[in-house]
Amino acid sequence: MSLEPASIRRIASLARIHVEDAELPALAAELNGILGWIEQLNEVNVDGIEPLTGAAQMALKMREDVVTDGGYPDKVLANAPERAGDFFAVPKVVE
Amino acid sequence: MILTDLTIARARNGLRARDFTARELTEAHLAAIAALNPRLNAFITVTGERALAQADAADTALARGEFAPLTGIPLAIKDLFCTEGVRTTAGSRILGSFVPPYESTVGANLLRDGAVFLGKANMDEFAMGSSNMTSAYGPVANPWQRRQDADAVLVPGGSSGGSAAAVSARLAMGATGTDTGGSIRQPAAFCGIVGMKPTYGRCSRWGVVAFASSLDHPGPFARTAEDCAILLRSMAGHDPKDSTSADLPVPDYEAACRRSVKGMRIGVPREYRVDGMQGEIETLWQQGLAWLRDAGAEVVDVSLPHTKYALPAYYIVAPAEASSNLARYDGVRFGLREPGEDLRDLYERTRASGFGAEVRRRILIGTYVLSAGYYDAYYLRAQKVRALILRDFTEAFAHVDALVAPTAPSAAFAQGENMDDPVQMYLNDVFTGPADLAGVPAISVPAGLDANGLPLGLQVIGRPFDEETLFAVGAALERAAGFDALPQIRADS
Amino acid sequence: MTYAIEGSTGAWEAVVGLEVHAQVISRAKLFSGAATDFGAPPNSQVSFVDAAFPGMLPVINRECVAQAVRTGLGLNAHVHMVSRFDRKNYFYADLPAGYQISQYEHPVVGEGKIEIELADGSTREIGITRLHLEQDAGKSLHDQHPTKTYVDLNRSGVALMEIVSEPDIRSPEEAGAYLRKLRTILRYLGTCDGNMEEGSMRADVNVSVRKHGEPYRTRCEVKNVNSIRFVMQAIDAEARRQVEVWESGGAVDQETRLFEKGTTRSMRSKEDAHDYRYFPDPDLLPLVLDEGWVAELKAKLPELPDAKKRRFMHDYGLTSYDAGVLVAEQATADFFEAVAKRRDAKLAANWVMGDLFAALNRAGRTIADSPVSAAALGQLLDLMADNTISGRIAKEVFEAMVDTGGDPAAIIEAKGLRQVTDTGAIDATVASVLAANADKVAEYKAGREKLFGFFVGQVMKAMAGKGNPGLVNDALKRELSKE
Ligand SMILES: [Mg+2]
Ligand SMILES: [Zn+2]
Questions:
Q1: Do B315 and A38 count as a contact with CB atoms less than 8 A apart?
Q2: What is the pTM of this model?
Q3: What does DSSP assign to residue B272?
Q4: Distance from the CA of C222 to the center of ligand 1, in angstroms?
Q5: Burial (0-12, 13-18, 19+ Cβ within 10 Å), C391
Q6: ipTM computed for the complex
Q7: Mind listing the pLDDT tens digit for each residue in C160-217?
Q8: A13 touching B, CB under 8 A?
C-alpha cells in the first residue's frame, strides 16, 4: 500500500499536524519508504497467533476507592499557555 | 586521584571513608561539565546550585555516619524523566517551557538513596532516534574520535545520547536512560560504557515522558557493570502508580556481578549474523564467546527465527503508541502554543512547529497504521509478530541461561551520516529491538575497539527478571576484555 | 396505540437504540485518586493524571469495577471475567490526553435485558447489547467569553458506565419507559444516582425510520440528551425529520446530531467520528475478575424492582399497576412495606398512593421527608381497624397529621374524635331525629326508601360524625321498621 498526497493530508489532519503542500512530496517519499520496508511482515505466517499487546504478563492490579489526589488547581494550571481564572482557555469551540 | 575517573563503587567507599567530600565530588563534575559541555552538548539543563545543595546534604548525612546506597553520587538524568521544579523537555521544542510539579518514581528512588542530580541529559526528541540528531537542543558529540580523520564529529548514538556521552566523558558517574528500541544499549556501545535495559516492569515508567508505553524501559548507564548494578538496585522496584510495574523483590545485583559463569549455558543466536555487519564486530563476538568458554561457560548455537521481523514490527507498534501518547501535546494545558484562527488550527500549528521532522513522521505512520481499514493489516499483524518474537526468546531460554550477541551492527558513525534515509537509521537497532518487543532484560558492555579505535559493545540478553545472570555474564566479559581505553574528550580535572 | 409517523407515502415506524452514559457512584475517579463530587470549584478535583500531564499513568479503581459488575448482574447480563481497556483517539478541548480510555472490543458486561411496562399495562423486553467502563471528559464552557471556550477538568476521568441497548425501541413512550426503568434499577443498585439535571445520566439516541417490515435504514446519533422528556422529544423530532428527508426523495446520511429547542441539527465538532483509531491501552493490563469476588457482589445485591413487584403482588395481593407504582422508588416501596406489615395491605396501598401522595404533592415533598412517618400512618390504620375512628374521621385525622406531624391517637383525643359505640346514646339520637322529622318518616314508610340515607346523615350530623356507622344503621332500620 502506497500513500497518495491526499491520504497523507487526511492522516495529518487526523493527527492535527499542519502540513504545507510543499512538504507533501518529500513526506510521501519518506513514509512510503518506511511502509514499503514494513511490508516484509506479510512474509510471516501468523495464522492462529494471539496478538501480544505488551510485555507485562500479569493481570491488572486494582486500587482502593479512596480520594488521594487533586485539590491543587494552581499546580494543574501553572504550565497553561492561557488561563482564565481557574479555567484553561482556548479559542471558542463550535459544537 | 582524579575524582571524575572514579567508579561509583570506589567513590562510595571514598565518601564513606571521608577521603573526599560529596561537595568536592560534585564540584569536580560541575567543573568538567562547564569545561566540556559546550563541546559535547550532553546536557540540556545543568542544575549546579541544586546539585551542590544535594551534595552538602549528603555530606551532613555522611558526617552523621548515615550512608544510603548512593549518598553523594553525582548523576545525569535523561531529560525524559520528569524532575520536580526542573524544566523537562524530552528533547522537544513543544516542552521547551515545561516544568513538572512532580518527580518520576525512578528519580525519586535515586534521590531517596542520596544521589546528586547534575542536570538533564540531551536526547533524541521524545526518544525517537539512534543518533541524538533529532534533539531540538542540538546534536551531542561522541567523546570518542576516529584515529583517522579525528575531526569528524561522531554521534553518541541514541536516543539516550547525552546520558551516554556524559558518563563516557566523565561529566557524570552514572546516568538514567530509557530503552525502547535500543536507546540505552546502542549509545552505551557507541560511547564505550555499560548500559542496562532491565526487564519490562522492573523500573517504573511513572513520571517518564511516554514514547511507546509497551516498549519503554528505564535503566542505568555507568562505566562498569558493578556501577550499573548499584544504580539499578536503587532505580528498580514495584510502583503502585504504574499498572505495568512488577511486584517482585529487587535482588542484590552488585553481588550478582561477582557470580561465576562456570557451567552456564550461553546461546549464540545465529540470526544475529547479518550481512553488512562490520568485520571486527564478528571477530569481537567470537572473542567474547571464547572468553566465556574460558570462564567455564558452555556456548551453544540457538535460533531466533523471527529476528529480522522485529524492526518492521517495532516500527508499527512504537509509532502507533506514540501517535496516541503524543496527542496530549496540544498547546492547551502545558508546553508550546502557536496561535491559530480556531482551536483546530491552533492544534495543527502548535504540533507542526512543536514537533521535529522525525517525531512528525512517526506520528503520521502511527496514525496511519491504526486508522480505519489498516489496523488489521499493520497493527494487529505486528502484534502477532511480536508474540512470535517473544516465543523465539522463550524457546531459546528453555535451553540456555543467556544470549550473547553484538549490541549494534557498527561503531559510532559521524554526524550527518545515515540521515538521508530514515530506514537506514532505523537499522541501527537491528540487534537491540527484539529484546524490547519481548520485554526481556539485556546489558551492553564495552568489549573492544575497531580498527579506527572506536569502542564496540557486546550485549547479553536474559530471561525475564533474571538481571542477575546478565550482571554475572556482563561482568565476566568486562573482566576478560579488560577494556581500559579512554575517550579522547574527557574530564582531566 | 402504537407509535407511527404518517407520511405522504404512508406510515413509518421509528427504530431507536439508546446509549446511556451513567456516572458511577464512587469516591475517586476511574483511573486517578481525585474526588468526584459535583459542583466543586473549577479544576479543584483534577490530578495530573486527569489533566494528562507527561509521564502520568492510569491505575484502576476497584469500586468502579464492582459497580459495573453489580449493574451487569442487575441487568441480568453476562459478566465477562476477562475484559480490556482500549484508547479511543480524538482531539477535543476537554479531552486532555487526546484519547478516552474505554472498552471497545472486550467490555466488562455483555448481553442483558430490561422489561419495560407501558401505559396500557402491556410489557416489552428491551435488549441490552453491552455495558462498558470508560472515562468521562472534562467540561467545556462556551458561554463565559465572547471568543473563548473555558475548560474545567473536574469531571475528566470520572467513571462512566456506557449502557448500550439493542435497537428494540419503537416509540418515544418506550424510550421514556426504558430510561425510567433503567434509572430505577441503577438507583436500587446504588451504582448511579440517575440525576439527569446534574448530568450523571446522559443519553445518546440512535434513531432511524422505516416502513413496517423493511430492513433498517441509515441511523443518526443524537448526542448528550439530558432529560427523559427531551429524549422523547428528540426521537419524535428526528424521526419526523428523517421521514421528510426520505419522502422528499433524499437520503439520510449517518451523522452525529445535537438536540436543541425541539429540533436536531448536525454537529460540527465530530468530523473525525469515523476514525477513532481504537487500540488496546498499553498502560493497562487485561482486567481479570475473580469468580469469588463476583459471587460475593452477586450475593450482596439488593432486591430489584421486578422481584419486589412480583413479591408485592404475591404477598400483599396488589394489582400489577399498584405494585408497579409502589416499587418505582426504593423509598416508596420501603414506606409501603412498613405500613402494610401485619395490616390490610390493600388499604395501606390506597392510603400511600392516595392521601399520602396527594399530601406530598401539595407540600412539594418526597417520601424521604414525608411529614407523616410510616409508623404513624400504620397507627392510623390500626385505629380504624379497632373502630376507634371511622374512615371518614381518619381522613380528618390524617390531614391533622400532615399539618402537625403529630401522632394519630393524640390528635383523636385532643379533637375528641373517638367514635361513639354506646348504643344508648345512638338510640336516643335516632329517636330525636325521627321525632323531629315525622313527615319524612311517613314518606319513608310510604315507600320512599331512599330517604334512609337522609336519616343516617341527620343522625351522624347530630353526633358530629362520631357515631359508629354500623350501629347507627342498625338502630335506624329497627326504629323505622316499627309499625
Ligand atoms: Mg456513544
Ligand atoms: Zn461513551
A1: yes
A2: 0.93
A3: G
A4: 10
A5: exposed
A6: 0.97
A7: 999 999 999 999 999 999 999 999 999 999 999 999 888 999 999 999 999 999 999 9
A8: yes
